Amino acid sequence: MGTLGFWRLTQADPEWIAAVDPDGTEHRAGDLLERANRLVHGLRELGLRTGDGICGLVPNGADGLLLYLAALQAGWYYTPINWHLTGPEIGYIVADSEARAFFVHERHAEEGMRGAVGSGIAADRVFAFGHVPGARPVTELTAGRSGAAPADRTAGATMHYTSGTTGRPKGVRRPLSGMDPDDAAELMTFLLTLFGITPGRENAHLVTSPNYHTAVTQFGGTALHMGHTLVYMDRWDAEEMLRLCDKHRVTNSHLVPTHFKRLLALPGEVRAKYDLSSLRWMIHAAAPCPVPVKWAMLDWWGDCVYEYYAATEGGGTIATPQDWKRYPGTVGTAWPISEILVVDENLEPVPAGTPGTIYMKMRGVAFEYKGDRAKTEAARLRDHFTVGDIGYLNEEGFLFLCDRKADMIISGGVNIYPAEIENELMVHPKVADVAVFGVPDDEWGEQIKAVVEPAAGLAPSAELAEEILGSLQGRLSRMKWPRSIDFIAEMPREPNGKLLKRKLRDPYWEGHDRAI
Question: Which keywords does this chain's UniProt record carry (predicted)?
Fold first, then answer.
């Protein structure tokens, strides 16, 4: 231990540019460190102690990074909140996390303050970045405080809330390590070294998705602790991403397959305008990537496209470009400190090539869903856990995903995996985005429905639906073809690429009982 970690690196060289805001504002590491130190002093005067929590409702940029850096050296839990939530949903997280301070950015003032009132947090513990009526300016915490390192530094942690597709979201809480913050940060860098990522000022990490997502925080935070510059995007845009990669000589980023689809849809002359020779580790996850889409990205960017599968709760797999080319469609093999188990309905391991429920574990890492021991235990199989995904391992131990158990369609007693159908439909040039799910069918139990967002400039029509379905000929057995296609102007996705399938599916099931 001893060479990595934001605080250590910044003491050695306070001049390095640690972050670049979406508006282009650059932040020296030394300035960020002093601001974080002042914040720790101010919150400690307010009574915060080791093990307490703070919440932040802030857009991508240095303000959120400030909260992260303060919490992780003061022994606090930091919970970044999804800014798409409503006031009551925000209030639930502030209350459930037992936050001792809540930070609201002026962009999210209205819902943030509704949340603050609903959470029951004391009014004098709500702080504003910018102008937020009813909240105290953050400067009240920091003005006049020392910029020197606080005493008794100890490692904090992030506590992210799961997306809550089945009921209320739950905070994934890990015990605090009691370690020196820089030593803990250096341990975190293990995640990026799995991909071969190296430390050093010559690297820049592009933050493409909202920082309230676990993976975005983990990859960005870890890159910072390796001395990389964090370049923040406010809203993802295909050409803007290429421009930023060119301008800042980006070496690594964290993406999702819908980003690839939109990048590939750019005209050839737009793609050719930007120098992408700096790209070395472009990592993707969060959803299955159609095999032709991944091939197209490898052809364009070269062997810098890495894939992994993991969960907020811990554990996962990694597929290098070389792994993936050997086994197209794989999400890789288990991390060195992780284990993968695939089991049947009786929780017995299944043979290679047989789909089952995926369980994972990460050695030496414990977690609980905060305040919900029953949910924690329900997801466990001894010391493994599941998030409900279905997949299989091949003879070499490479994992392939089929789908979420909750999304599986049972039609005429046959298990059908929508992800397989979505991957085939997604490659059609007239399809911008697609979702497949089961809808009620009196004879078969469920029938297959596809909802398609047409490519830009195309109007929905029966002819378009017929053309898209016809493209499955010879590529997918007829039993897996959607019975019908409905069109939608824009697919309901979270900014990290996660499809909100329940929003699409629920209207079709109103008045029906659903077995799954």
Answer: Ligase
